[in-house]
Amino acid sequence: MARYFDVHPDNPQQRTIGTVVEDIRSGALVAYPTDSCFALGCRLGNRDGIARIRSIRNLDDRHHFTLVCRDFAQMSQFVRIDNDVFRAVKAATPGSYTFILPATKEVPRQLMHPKKKTVGVRIPDHVVTRALLDELGEPLLSSTLLLPGEEEPLTQGWEIKERLDHVVDAVLDSGDCGTEPTTVIDFSGGEAEIVRRGAGDTSRFE
Fold first, then answer.
1. pTM for the whole thing?
2. Cα–Cα distances in Å, from 57 out to 13, 93, 110, 140?
3. What backbone torsions phi and psi does residue 201 show, to the nearest 5 degrees?
4. In this predicted model, what pLDDT tens digit does every residue of 159-177 receive, in sequence order?
5. pLDDT at 129 over 90
6. Distance between CA atoms of 191 and 24, rounded to whole angstroms?
């Protein structure tokens, strides 16, 4: 049964954030809010968590997982990014964008696209997510909480708790969350390719 945590959207309780991070470090899979919609998240090397995300979302091995990072210094450990791409990504973050970039050797092989050797990264603009990342000190391996056969992600913490009670370990709820996933921009070929139009404005990449 999933633990349910109700946190303040503007001033998340540090004790609660600390408890959730302890759970993540111990192998938990959590549902948490972002600046686009709810996501599923676990530690980078959590094989069971990765398998559960794949199962919950019915994902194949071509799916791009996302490393949700605290800042650029953290992001640069996991992806290779040249100067031109850096400037474009920097101008759009923090925000509701996921960028697909070539992965470094720090990224476990099972998280990379099997042919392209790429991974998704993002820096969110959400108080609760950033509090989690600050406390954790490493990226959260994440995927949008969009269930198979459904057109929109789940948006209410209580509904997530009700529907995923036996497949996630914790639900972190800070109130209403958006219904649009991130806009996905693929920079792995050097030029911006819009893969998915979502919460982030695409005009700067067109």
1. 0.94
2. 30, 27, 16, 17
3. -65, 125
4. 999 999 999 999 999 988 8
5. yes
6. 35
Distance between CA atoms of residues 200 and 204, nearest Å: 10
SS (H, E, C) the chain: CCEEEECCCCCCCHHHHHHHHHHHHCCCCEEECCCCCCEEEECCCCHHHHHHHHHHHCCCCCCCCEEECCCHHHHCCCECCCHHHHHHHHHCCCCCEEEEEEECCCCCHHHCCCCCCEEEEECCCCHHHHHHHHHHCCCEEEEECCCCCCCCCCCCHHHHHHHCCCCCCEEEECCCCCCCCCEEEECCCCCCEEEECCCCCCHHHC
Q: In the numeric block, which tokens belong to residue 23?
A: 């759970």
Q: Cβ neighbours of residue 33 under 8 Å, at least 6 residues apart?
A: 39, 126, 128, 129, 157, 172, 173, 174, 175, 177
- What residues contact 115, with CB distance under 8 A and at least 6 apart? none
